[in-house]
Amino acid sequence: MKLEEPQALNAFGALSQETRLRMVRILVQAGPEGMAAGAIGDAVDASSSSASFHLAHLERAGLIQSRRESRSIIYSANFEGLSGLVEFLMRDCCSGHPEVCIPAAAVAVECCMPAGAKENACAR
Amino acid sequence: MKLEEPQALNAFGALSQETRLRMVRILVQAGPEGMAAGAIGDAVDASSSSASFHLAHLERAGLIQSRRESRSIIYSANFEGLSGLVEFLMRDCCSGHPEVCIPAAAVAVECCMPAGAKENACAR
DNA sequence: CCATAATTTCAATAATTGTTGAGATATTGA
DNA sequence: TCAATATCTCAACAATTATTGAAATTATGG
Question: DSSP letters along A28-63, please?
């Protein structure tokens, strides 16, 4: 997802708060299944009201999404939004400077290549 | 540069403000030469006092750096800090999820490959 | 339909962040 | 040394953002 500056500002603001950053991390780990609002609140030690506030903030910022499942509201990471933010940072904010993009590419390779494939990922 | 969570929080906070985000963008464009505080303030339409406040904020967050050059204070982008933030986002925050890393890798290739080399960057 | 569970909403308050203008510092050229 | 330039610092104020607890909403099983 291509982010424009106002959306990027929102996303940075959403991630600039400890409780919310921890929520995102937990939801990324949880994967597409997601977690119920209450469980997230417990995991980050926030009251139900505070958890609700921060989850709404993250959802407005496009970093997570929600669905109802019976009595619970299940939140999950929005990987499109998260990758949009990484892209914004690399492309729009850092103007594609090699000092930023080369390390990023290295992380991408390190994280996403099947184990043992690093050495000759380009050789097949 | 490897960022820990508190530094990442600071960096996100620094980028979550319009004036500061514009300052970073301008300084990235300006490259290692940088720009004088006054020129940056003019470029983003901020009073000297406000510019000083925001530049100090960005410097504390490790996204820019400063040096004195005669009467002026020259600020320039800190590419290590910026790339550290991209890395944090990909690795620590998004746990290296392919949904985030694959698009990032694509941006890295698109931005950093010498023109015309995209097609067969892996073929040599 | 009722009692309960999960979550959100709201208003009051607290805390953090940003703006402004006046004055303080540092540097230079005359 | 003096006047001028560039920038920073500080305190007062304004604005935004976060926390709290109570009440409202939505859904479910009995």
Answer: HHHGGG-EEHHHHHHHHT--HHHHHHHHHHHHHTTS
